[in-house]
Design goal:
Layout: H1 4-13, H2 26-55, H3 59-83, H4 90-122, H5 127-159, H6 163-194, H7 197-220, H8 239-268, H9 272-299, H10 303-327, H11 339-371, H12 379-436, H13 440-459, H14 465-470, E1 480-488, E2 493-499, E3 504-508, E4 511-515, H15 518-535, E5 540-544, H16 550-554, E6 563-568, H17 571-576, E7 593-597, H18 600-606, E8 611-616, H19 632-640, E9 642-653, H20 659-672, E10 677-680, E11 689-695, E12 701-702, H21 703-712, H22 714-721, H23 728-732, E13 735-738, H24 743-746, H25 758-765, H26 772-780, E14 790-791, H27 794-803
Helix pairs in contact: 2-3, 2-4, 2-5, 2-6, 2-7, 3-5, 3-12, 4-5, 4-7, 5-6, 5-12, 6-9, 6-11, 8-9, 8-10, 8-11, 8-12, 9-11, 10-11, 10-12, 10-13, 12-13, 20-25
Length: 804
């Protein structure tokens, strides 16, 4: 009877008494890699969802997440051929990796909440805080991503190190990438929208286990044999050159993905759906290109030369993409209505713009695999070298373009840099091919390349300022009288304009988020003045988001306030707000003001400071990630940071949304603050947006004191009078209801929780709807005069009762 060690050896090596191997199950293995790719992207979206709630959404935090995920994939590629003997059965190794990924996926459901507790207990600011964010990401993401990165080198040992075998590995790479597309769409449009991160993770685990089970069944019918491969030096351009070129290709591809995501999010809207569609189209192009490259790798005599010409093709593809995104597809119109048609239209526009470049980058990987093969017996090592070089370049491209080039020189110069990277890759590869086997065309290549690079750089157009300012609102492009400020920041593109109608506007990510128009000024002032007056004596206030600074500037007119803390994630917004100094009462020049550059939720979770008022500038819940500022867990965090008697204010848009999204936002707030009150900003009481007010403890609203306060402070009264709220009656007349009265209407409200952030999916689907009047009408249908809440003079009460 065989002992345990011999059984393990037999299991992993696949040694049997068969005299002939069974046919290689290529199609089935491709299906398995399709499932692996889908599971990997489901995990990525679920883990990033959770970890962003832990370490925040600042540029440093996002960089730490990406470095950990992509770095783990690269490490896995390198380790597999060094750790696992080539005699072990590739399909059984693959099955073991998939099982291990699934086990870790389940374990992370318990580990991630624990990591959050440890992180919040130890985090601080400065270098130590940044390093701790990196440690959390590495500890959580490195183990599973190392295993993910090892799967392709493992199975490459099954395909073999021959030319057809390496081409087959390239095909599997393409299929895996296409599987990732299905994972993105499944997670974003169904699993996370309908369920939550736990269900999404369990679906990915099920895929891992199913893939492992089928791989084990296939392994039983096939004998693994290792044979040396004869070196063919005349066809190999030199492994270091190929690795350098594929690293540059990875750098350019992920750098372009960063640039394009910024531009497409301006055009399509920064919803979670559109980010997922952009990613899916990008991955689909890479996957399709990989299949083309695998076909070429098996047939062309000089794969290195084909790889070089692919990089040359980018010199035309990159300017084409820049031109299409900025100057063609924004003006295409869709006559049919509905979310489904809109999504398909955006997919088509995105694909037509970036397909040439993504197909080239996808084809480069299989060609690099073939070109880097210098007679190795272990195909796993060939795949590992190429994929780790490509991943390292991709990692550098992501960090370089997102943190340095776009905020430093803008998207036009960043795309010109992409052209130069492609040119260096092309020159390097063609130079190596010319040295090995010159041809007349390769002799002319340097001169042709210089001309092509110069023309390509010149042809890259700038991102239209209208796209930065108004995004998908194409008619708005022609309403701008003057651009006062334009900047492409780390996390958002920002502009300040004067409209032809005479209003000053702040644009963030392709949308007007603040202006000096009377209705906008009114809601922004209300978000500051209403909670301050209802509190009575606020000493310390926190404003989530700077915007134009009007909300923050409202507190300048309250002399009792000793500390004004503004938490803003994008530095460009702070700079832009200086164009609104008159409207925001020069809040940044006030000695009481401090600006914290961080994700506001992360700041609240990691600070010990408490505040009398916590309010926020208008932040649309349909923007990806913004729903984390509207969840039950966020509200509980706010409660912990409010002093006794503290007041919280939150903005609720009734436009560009639907009733279920409004119910979700209001219902979630009322869930945490049952005595919440609603205040309407619309001058005609017809509904546009609302202010939600909650507080720690209950207290009547003292209208007499408010009247005395306004009468005795001309600066405060003037700030309110500018927006039609200069008296007690004007202020209390904006009352729109309270949480208790709305209980029947909110009974079916979807509660927004961190596990799902359902609100961003609901609001993202309702972005094109205009139902403000109907939603407000449903709300005020439950409104009654709050005699138990208002403490006002009899004559004021008589006026208010008549208005109700």
């Amino acid at each position: 009877m065989a002992g345990p060690s011999s059984c393990m050896f037999e299991f992993m090596t696949g040694c049997t008494n068969r005299s002939e191997p069974a046919p290689q199950p290529t199609a089935l293995l491709a299906c398995l890699f399709l499932g692996s790719g889908a599971a990997a992207l489901i995990y990525e979206l679920a883990w990033f969802h959770v970890l962003r709630l832990v370490v925040g959404s600042s540029s440093i935090s996002i960089a730490a997440l990406l470095v950990s995920f992509m770095g783990g994939m690269g490490i896995g590629s390198v380790l597999l051929p060094r750790v696992v003997p080539p005699t072990w059965h590739p399909l059984r190794v693959y099955a073991g990796l998939e099982v291990a990924i699934g086990v870790i996926g389940v374990a992370l459901l318990a580990v991630l909440p624990l990591a959050q507790s440890v992180y919040l207990a130890a985090v601080g600011y400065g270098l130590g805080g940044v390093l701790l964010r990196a440690v959390v990401c590495v500890v959580c993401l490195l183990p599973p991503t190392i295993l993910m990165g090892a799967t392709l080198p493992a199975v490459a040992r099954w395909t073999g190190a021959t030319r057809p075998g390496v081409a087959a590995a390239g095909r599997l790479y393409g299929v895996n990438t296409i599987g990732a597309v299905s994972g993105v769409l499944l997670a974003s449009f169904y699993l996370l929208r309908v369920y939550d991160t736990v269900v999404a993770t369990l679906v990915a685990v099920a895929l891992n286990l199913a893939v492992a089970g089928v791989a084990l069944v296939l392994a039983r019918g096939w004998i693994h044999e290792t044979e040396p491969v004869r070196r063919e030096p005349s066809l190999a351009p030199g492994r270091p050159v190929v690795l350098a070129v594929i690293a540059l290709s990875g750098l350019a591809s992920l750098g372009a993905e960063v640039v394009w995501t910024r531009q497409f999010s301006l055009l399509f809207g920064a919803t979670v759906y559109n980010f997922s569609l952009i990613l899916a189209v990008f991955l689909g192009g890479l996957g399709g290109g990989s299949l083309i490259g695998a076909w070429l790798a098996r047939r062309v005599e000089r794969p290195g030369l084909a790889l070089g010409w692919m990089q040359v093709a980018l010199l035309g593809a990159l300017p084409f993409s820049a031109f299409m995104i900025g100057y063609q597809i924004p003006f295409w119109e869709l006559s049919a209505k509905g979310n489904g048609m809109s999504f398909l239209f955006d997919v088509a526009r995105c694909a037509l713009s970036i397909a040439p470049a993504t197909l080239v980058w996808g084809a480069s990987v299989p060609l690099a695999l073939a070109a880097a093969n210098e007679g190795d017996a272990d195909a796993g090592r060939i795949v590992a070298r190429v994929t780790v070089a490509n991943t390292a370049g991709a990692l550098l491209g992501t960090v370089l373009f997102s943190l340095v080039l776009i905020p430093g020189v803008g998207t036009q110069a960043a795309q010109q840099a992409l052209v130069l990277v492609a040119a260096v890759a092309a020159a390097t590869m063609l130079w190596a091919e010319r040295r090995r086997q010159p041809t007349p065309l390769l002799s002319l290549a340097p001169w042709l390349l210089v001309l092509a690079v110069g023309l390509s750089v010149w042809l890259v157009p700038g991102t239209p300022r209208g796209l930065i300012a108004f995004g998908r609102d194409i008619p708005g492009w022609d309403t701008i009288g003057q651009y006062l400020f334009v900047d492409e920041g780390v996390s958002a593109s920002v502009a300040v304009t004067d409209s032809e109608a005479g209003y000053r506007q702040l644009h963030i990510s392709g949308k007007v988020v603040a202006s000096t128009m009377d209705l906008d000024m009114r809601i922004e002032r209300m978000l500051g003045h209403v909670p301050a007056l209802l509190h009575g004596e606020p000493r310390s206030v926190l404003i989530v988001g700077m915007g134009a600074g009007v909300t923050a500037g409202s507190f300048v007119r309250h002399p009792e306030v000793e500390r004004i803390v503004i938490c803003e994630i994008e530095p460009s917004v702070i700079t832009a707000s200086d164009q609104f100094r008159e409207a925001n009462h020069a809040v940044l020049s006030d000695p009481r003001t401090e600006v914290i550059y961080d994700d506001a939720r992360h700041f609240l979770a990691t600070t010990d400071e408490q505040f009398d008022v916590i309010t926020s500038d208008p932040i649309h819940p349909w923007v990806r990630g913004a729903a984390s500022l509207y969840s039950v867990e966020y509200h509980e965090l706010v409660k912990e940071r409010l002093r006794p008697g503290g007041v919280v204010a939150q903005w609720v848009p009734l436009y560009e949304t639907d009733e279920v999204s409004a119910k979700s936002q209001i219902g979630t707030f009322v869930h945490s603050f049952p005595d919440a009150t609603l205040w309407n900003s619309d001058f005609l009481d017809a509904g546009y947006d609302l202010v939600l007010i909650g507080r720690v403890g209950s207290q009547r609203i003292d209208g007499r004191w408010i009247g005395e306060r306004l009468a005795g402070d001309s600066a405060l009264r003037g700030s309110l009078a500018e927006v039609g709220l200069g008296s007690t009656i004007d202020l209390l007349d904006t009352y729109a209801g309270r949480g208790n009265d709305l209980e029947p209407w909110l009974r079916d409200a979807p509660i927004n929780r961190d596990r799902s952030l359902r609100l961003q999916y609901l609001a993202g689907l309702a972005l094109d709807q205009q139902n403000a009047y109907a939603i407000y009408g449903a709300i005020v249908g439950y409104r009654r005069y709050p005699g138990d809440l208002f403490d006002v003079a009899p004559q004021d009460e008589a006026v208010l009762l008549r208005r109700y």
